[in-house]
Amino acid sequence: MSEPVLDRSVRSPNFRRFWIGQSVSFLGSEVSLLALPLIAVVTLNADATQMGILTALGYLPFLLIGLQAGVWVDRMRRRQILVWSDLATAVLLLTLPAAALMGVLRIEQMYVLALLIGGIEVVSSVAHQSFLPSLVERRELPAANARLEGSSSVATIAGPSVAGVLVQLLTAPIAVLIDAVSFIVSALVLRSVRVEEPPPLPPDESVGMRAQVSEGLHHVVRHRLLRPLFSCGATHNFFRRMIEALFVLYVVNQLGLDPVALGLVLAAGGPGALLGAAVAVPLAQRIGLGRTIVWMQVLTGISCFAAPLAGGPPWLTIAILAAGQFLLGVARPVFNISQLSLRQAITPDRLQGRVNATMRFIMWGVTPFGALVGGLLGSAIGLRPTLLLAAVGVLLAFVWIAASPVRALVTVPDAAEG
After folding, report:
1. What does the pLDDT look like over 29-48, one tens digit per residue?
2. Could you tell me which CATH class the domain 13-192+208-408 is placed in?
3. Which residues, 6 or more positions from 259, have their beta carbon under 8 angstroms from its beta carbon?
4. Running DSSP on this structure, what letter comes out for residue 40?
5. Of 7, 54, 331, 342, whose Cβ has the fewest other Cβ atoms within 10 Å?
6. DSSP letters along 230-275, please?
7. Rounded alpha-carbon distances, angstroms, from residue 200 to 166, 218, 359
8. 251-272 pLDDT, tens per residue?
9. Rounded distance, CA 245 to CA 259, Å?
10. In Å, what is the CA distance from 2 to each residue of 5, 192, 322?
11. 228 pLDDT exceeds 90?
């Protein structure tokens, strides 16, 4: 029997356990964020098209099961989903160093792992976002999300630099072991969280998957505040995935940086993200929630121009790339904390899973196409022109928010809408 949460605040033991578990997972994931592409580029000699396919497969599950994931989350205990997702991811990651040790590692295995881990991420991310409102009051969602983003920021600082050193000294497959261990630790910590969740959908309400999916989809598409949020997110993610698909290949092969330098560049986003997580709540209180979301998307777009403009001696190349990562690090936590807190606050408890899943289906469902387009364009017109085009697209995503009712919001609403 779950114990009721008496203290539904960011200071409660349950939230602290949840926070610790996610923080450990964040760190391991940051290690793999660099290690996995480096395996493809350095160990398997992947080209631009293969990197595009690899990135696309990681996001393809958002299209394949994105909407269904919301119904599954609403039908099950969300904490259990998080625990089993961590354990399954750990097992999958362990197959990489095992294959490398036996000398049978191939790009096809990377493709399969990207697809499977991406599928787990779709379900677990919806469960994560839907579980948080069970831990804290709605008015404390911005503070709770800020703490989680702060942990993510610390991981962003430590993860890439640690990964770069590990890859340089021990090879990328061995670095992936750290990520696998982190997911196991996260699962064990999450098992200790005791919270009274909203009851799963009873059998008589959960017989029709299509009807449940349709309810969440219609709620999101018709909502005056959610519609501009997913439009901005989809535009941003399409063009950002173009950049992501080519970034490691571009930096290593065209700009000539080694794994340690690449790790330092990516780690530069960490201090920015830490700053962003710290100022997100006071900034929104000062200039308004809506304006905060608009300006952080603009800053994100500006940061994306660093990659195509980088060049010159190695120190200058590293400085330009690091500056871009720092700006991106500042902007994304503030944007994410603001829009996610808004989304969670205006969504009824019974729809949390489906609304979060639908939003992610729309916003992330476009990412496989962005990655594929990035890879194909990179092969056709070159890496630098493709990165420049993608940066323009990311910048223009702010228009969706600037021209919507979201821009006028001063703070997070106290009650759900719809």
Report:
1. 777 777 778 888 878 888 88
2. mainly alpha
3. 34, 38, 42, 163, 164, 167, 168, 252
4. I
5. 7
6. HHHHHHHHHHHHHHHHHHHHIIIIIS---HHHHHHHHHTHHHHHHH
7. 43, 21, 20
8. 988 898 887 888 888 878 878 8
9. 17
10. 9, 11, 46
11. yes
The DSSP letter of residue 411 is S
- Tokens at residue 42, please? 């350095």
Please enumerate in sequence order all residues whose Cβ is within 8 A of that of 82, keeping only pairs 6 or more positions apart, or say none.
Answer: 124, 127, 128, 131, 187, 190
Q: What global pTM score does this model have?
A: 0.73
What are the residue ranges spanned by the domains of the chain? 13-192+208-408
Q: For residue 154, what are its two tokens?
A: 């610390």
228: nearest Cα among 281, 297, 139, 129: 297
Structure-block tokens of residue 396 = 């223009």
Question: How long a stretch of residues is the chain?
Answer: 418
Alpha-carbon span 159 to 95, nearest angstrom? 21
Q: How far apart are CA 235 and CA 407, in angstroms?
A: 17
- Residues sharing a CB contact under 8 Å with residue 395, sequence separation 6 or more, in sequence order: 298, 300, 301, 302, 304
- HSE, side-chain direction, 13 A CA sphere, residue 236: 30
The rounded distance, in Å, linking the Cα atoms of 68 and 241 is 23
Eight-class DSSP state of 46: -
SS3 224: coil
Q: What is the residue whose two structure tokens read 């697809």? A: 115
Hey, is 289 helix, strand or coil? helix
Average pLDDT over residues 287-301: 95
Indicate the Cα dihedral angle 37, 39, 42, 44, nearest 10°.
-110
